[in-house]
Amino acid sequence: MTTVTSTHDRAGSAPEAAALHEIVEGVFAWVQPDGTWWINNAGAVSGPDGTIVVDTCATEVRTRRFLAAVGAATGDAPLTMAVNTHLHGDHTYGNSLLPSSTVLIGHEAMREGLLADPIIDGCPPVWQPVPDWGQVTRRVPSVVLRSDLTLFTGSRRVDLLHPGHPAHTTGDVVAWLPEERVLFTGDLIFHGVTPLVFMGSVEGAIASLGWLADFGADHVVPGHGPLIDGAALPGVLADVERYLQLVLRTARTGLEEGLTPFEAAQRCDLGEFAAWPDAERLVLNLHRAYADAAGRPFDLMAAIGDAVRYNGGPMASAV
Ligand SMILES: [Zn+2]
């Protein structure tokens, strides 16, 4: 595990490349290029009663930059509430850098998942360079939801909604501003980056795409990749769906032919999706599709080991 076959543009994905975008007055997206492993998007919604934060970042350095930018844009208004869209560390490890007074909210399954997550305690050498989270500690929500919850800052409304089934993970939540028609999707959308559904469900992720479309959003903040306007959303959702259908087809054929997920991945022609970063996620997604189709338990460490093998070495990280 010494050869790194996939590389990133180091300057293009450095912490300094991240920027705060004001989508509509007082509603912000923190977009971190290039959106690959551990490089997420986050956001903030300001209002008369303080700021509501949507996700944090993977590392201390990245989260401090994000929170400083939000403070500068909002006159250091208090961060009254924060929501985690799902459990993954790129969206949650910075939670402990929020003020202790910030009420942290997430799905019930998200809270359980972050409590059980071992990677914050020491990242295995399956990414290169091995991420250094900095001075962060595990902080989980003190308020959980199972289907929906509505937050207000003044009269500005933020609806937190769970799709009702596993998709990217088992505890996904979107943040929807019905007045401003802004949707923070978390990792239900990867934009121009290979989708990852190994801790959720391939079929559930496909079903969530129609659910996302039905919001009729004008502005969409994906979990990874550039912002999406309402007119471009159908095309982005169609791209993600075609990729996920390819995963399902590859798993079906592989099971019929008695192939392992790794063998099925090797035989799969990614075609139009080969240019997306993090192509090795195909292996992880196939492990999930196999487990669900065959009623087998999902083996996380076997899946990650196969992804590294498919990649020809540790997966590239750009934390
Ligand atoms: Zn995620």
TrEMBL record:
SUPFAM superfamilies referenced in this protein's UniProt entry, alphabetically: Metallo-hydrolase/oxidoreductase
Name this protein carries in UniProt: MBL fold metallo-hydrolase
Segments crossing the lipid bilayer: none
Domain of life of the organism encoding this protein: Bacteria
Residues of the Metallo-beta-lactamase domain: 39-224
Organism the protein comes from: Planotetraspora phitsanulokensis
